[in-house]
Amino acid sequence: MGAPRSSVAAAVRIDRIVAAHAASATVVRRTPLLTSASVSQLCSGTVALKAECLQRTGSFKLRGALNKLRALGAEASRGVVAGSAGNHAQALAYAARHHGVPCEVFMPLEAAVSKLDAVRAFGAEVHQRGSSVDECVALAREHAQATGLTFVHSFDDYDVIAGQAGLGVELAEDAGDLRQVVVPVGGGGLASGVALALAQLRPAVRVVGVQAAACAPFVADRRGGARVPPPSTRTIADGIAVKRPGALTRPLVEEWLDDVITVDEEAIAQAMVLLLTRSKLLVEGAGAAALAALLNGAIAPVTGGTTVAILSGGNVDVGMIAGIAAHQETRAGRRSRLFTRIDDRPGGLAGLLAAVADASANVIAVEHVRDGVPLAVRETGIELIVETRGAGHRLQLLSRLHDAGYAVDVAD
What we know:
With 412 residues, the chain is an alpha/beta fold. Helices cover 42% and strands 19% of the residues.
């Protein structure tokens, strides 16, 4: 497990973690630990999936929010407030409704409508202000001081960390041959909680954190980089795009995780599509990061036991899923954008479409292009989006079109 470690802080000792897990058992779902032969084969080792994307509110965040409100007790009677773009907002609103206390949430101006609606559906009052999550957190803190509401941080809080650690308790109990856990890292609450639980219950288990390469402050720390916030948090794994690790979570992650690595956007997108098509699981970018690291070889499964990838959440907009799926179809050669020229007279388009049909390809969209491209008199450009069975079938289609007299350009 690496260098010698300090004693565990009293707030996250295993007795408190287990008590928090037991106290939330009537509300928090014990999410399944799923096996997949195809996923294990692709990762070249035994891999199981902890499907926290099936948790109530769609992510692991409910565990920490519930435990925080349980710990606050009467102190939270006036209500709670937080700043969040999505998962923490939904979790706190749900937990507050369960405990019967008011909840207010500050969310960015550009927050997804689906997430705003979900938070309101759980009974919280939403203040849509600020251009970023950081601004919303600052506004929530100010609001707490002005109103007497209790501010609840999404990760930098020992009670929240102890609640998230319940996921580690479940892994220790449900995976008999557990040897390694791969966990997404944003602010570090889930990662440190899982690592602390396993260090006390199954100390031989290796815990590896994964960050999106576009926003990876923990990785910069480990490599001795300057502690400067990343310039951007633009990533499809927006749930772990946290610029500034917490004062509590930074040292916990540094001490209790065996390693922290990164994955790029393409790997995350591929993992999301694989989970949807092979495992029938809708997983957000942050939730797919752990499996992405295993699929692209950034971390290898251990031998002689099971590696668990934590799918931390499933709150993703349908539009993003559609875009990612289309992108992956293009990469696999199953969807292509073609451009060619035809005679601009009756029957010209019909001849082109007949040639496509003869190659058993499917036309998704057709557009005439008469501006911005060099064309002869009585000629028009045609842009086609076509579906094929893969890269080989696409080559057959292009060959058939060439034989029919069409010069075709393929957009990359």
